[in-house]
Amino acid sequence: MARRVGLTGGIASGKSTVSARLAALGATIIDYDRLAREVVAPGSPALDLIAQRFGAGVITPEGTLDRPALGALVFADPAALKDLEAITHPAIRDLAAEREQQAGPDGIVVHDNPLLVEMGASAACDVVIVVDAPEELQVARMVGDRGMSEADARARIAAQASRDQRNAAADVLIENTGTREQLSARVDEVWKDLVEPGAR
Q1: Residues 16, 20, 26, CA angle at the centre, nearest 5°?
Q2: Residue 79, Cα to own-chain centre: how many angstroms?
């Protein structure tokens, strides 16, 4: 059986950098952000349900999902976010299971999922890796690197599981407060433990 690794972290924690390094080391990555886009492709059942629940204003003239419009609705309204998750999470889970089967029986399959804890998916993993950064550093990265306002950045953080909730699910905690090189070196250590459990 492939080892199923859950990888998560708050927005702007550095999770994507960790995921890219694990891929370079040989892991099969199942990217949930990509799955989330695939399940709402034009013509998909999930997109039809989203349009029914949130109205035509969240669909572009080309028939694709208007992510900023939908985001503006759900990040300001916890009940709306829950409704969206009830539509998308089951579809994402099904697609992830399909991708995992395609990966074959050997190796390490990393479920790169920013909502691993919120989706209740951490219990199904052999190992859970959480990439952690203090909230002020997350905000600074979103404002500096992504051009978000501080209010938008804090709303995104508030919409996710808390640091305590995420960190409580961790088998391995990767603190990302240093340089990219330090982060890469820490991921290499974690990879050795995944490939040869108990070797160090």
Answers
A1: 145
A2: 20
* Residues 6 or more apart in contact with residue 185 via CB below 8 angstroms: none
Token readout for 74 is: 């759900």
What burial letters (b/e) apply to 125-157, b meaning 16+ CB within 10 Å? bebbbbbbbeeeebbebbeeeeebeeebbeebb
The tally of CA atoms less than 13 A away on the side-chain side of residue 184 is 8
Contact, 130 vs 173, CB < 8 A?
A: yes
What is the token pair recorded at 38? 């695939």
Band of pLDDT at residue 1, cut at 50, 70 and 90: low
Average pLDDT over residues 31-44: 95
- DSSP string of 144-193? HHH---HHHHHHHHHHSPPHHHHHHT-SEEEE--S-HHHHHHHHHHHHHH
Residue 174's pLDDT band (cuts 50, 70, 90): very high
- What pLDDT score does 199 carry? 46
Tokens (6 digits) for 48: 């039809």
Calculate the CA dihedral of residues 180, 184, 190, 193 and round it to 10 degrees: -160
Question: Which tens digit of pLDDT belongs to each residue from 130-163?
Answer: 999 999 999 999 999 999 999 999 988 998 899 9
55-67: per-residue pLDDT in tens? 999 999 999 999 9
